[in-house]
Write a structure and sequence with these properties.
The complex is a heterodimer of chains A (422) and B (160). Chain A is mainly beta and 422 residues long. Helix content of chain A is 5%, strand content 36%. The two termini of chain B are 15 Å apart. The chains are: A mainly beta (422), B mainly beta (160).
Amino acid sequence: MRAPGRAIVPVVTLAALVCVTGCGSGGGGHHGTTAAPTATPRASATPIQPTPIATSSNVQPIAVDLGPTGDYTNGLFTSVTICMPGDDSRCQTIGGVLVDTGSIGLRILSSALSLSLPQQTTASGDPAAECVPFLDSLTWGSVRVADVELAGETASAIPIQVIGDPRFPNIPARCTSSGLPPADTVGTLRTNGILGVGVFREDCGPICESTGAENPGVYYACPASGCEQIAQPIASQLQNPVWKLPEDNDGVVIELPSIPASGSDGVSGSLILGIGTQSNNGLGAANIVTLSANGTFTTLFESQSVTVSFIDSGSNGIFFLNTAQTGLPICSGNKGFYCPPSPQTIATTLRGARGETVSATFTAANANALFDGNPNAVAFDDVAGPSPGIFDFGLAFFYGRRVFAAIEGQTTPAGAGPYVAY
Amino acid sequence: MTMSVPARDSAKRRSMHALVALLALGVPSSAAAMLGGDATSVDVDRAQMASSLTVTPTDAGAVHELRLASGTVVREYAAPNGTVFAVAWEGPWLPDLRQLLGPYFQQYANAAQAKPRARGPLVIREPGLVVEIAGHMRAFVGRAYVPEMVPSGFRAETIR
């Protein structure tokens, strides 16, 4: 029996993701428990090395591995060093942090944090906290301030979220009005943190600055009497660490090597800071897809036009539409993935906000067959699954490509972001 | 719960756009209702949410489309008898699902709590309630409907 219940944890980034729990083909999806199927840590694997890149101060190492819970599939992780603001003698390096182009800002699980970072305070002098929906769960916790080091560069004194901060155990009603449960332990978050390096400067934007009914209830002030929704100035919102770097601050490149159709036991690659700022991050012949104000493009698939589409390293597969629209059956026991009888080539065209079109083709193989047949593999370029109403090009799309994410308002050699390119 | 048939064009057999512009000076009232409510009589206080409302009659009743100040668009599908059998939304963040799902909110929340968390798409299919949420930060889509209340002949996959 090969790895019966390997948990492919999907993760999605804020976006999409994954399967979750027992993804083995066996029987019906169990839920509930953390039955994270223990995936046997593999011993020797043969990690596929990326083409060597000259070590440069703008290269942050990344790897696809089992993650801190030991059961993640297609999870792209890195180690992030955070320091007390202005004091690089008091720092902590935290591994097992998910690299996510689908969200913005650094979020660290309270249980993984030993530094006592300063609390951000609101205009009224109260501690600030944040509530962010990540599809099937939410992150709730304090907003604190830290210096964040990526490669050799530092984003100084930026707001980050401490998820599950025991100082604020009571989640306000406005936050729970999403009905979503909190992911505030490594067992539920499945990472030690999320490094959101997507196409925006801050996580929420102008709407969270508003005082009206349109305020989505993301930021809170937490006096002793309890936490209440607030209007949070943009500069006080969680910041994309990349745009706060002194240089190489217009976006990132994620570079991962190609892998076999049967998967890989481990993959290492590079998160390169900047686009067109150094010899290692040029756009070259990459095709650019400009994005809407919401960070989305349109995917044309067969006769369908899917307006909510994005490229997202934090999603652990390619998640799109549903069986009725794709003809791809859902896996038995593994409802987060598709299980076609044989690998299917999916040809799509991405249409950017300015109307430009770029083709995007990938393979959707039988996820159960992949997982069961390759019990030690952690990286797959051909796993796909349903995601109603959208098209999410997750990590499976990244292998063998250089994927660029340009930040809104930042100037790159190809013009200002936001855009993605590959 | 099975979604059959390719979705897409359907439902628009008849699209008479009866447009109603509700100006929302912050306190407009709207006749739209929450899931399971009565679109014609339930005057749920959407005042704070809606900035405009468009009503499109369909063979199966009417679709009330609300554009919220937040940029989120909410569509409520009402059967000929006025009952809202489905809601769908799209926007940068989630709408207030407690309000939108009304009497179905608790069932939804209980089901969401019971699932393993993966930061992945949320798909809840239970007797009496289907809820789906997908997207990511600044771009969420979702829908919820009560299968038993969907008018015969209406294809649930066209709810969006």
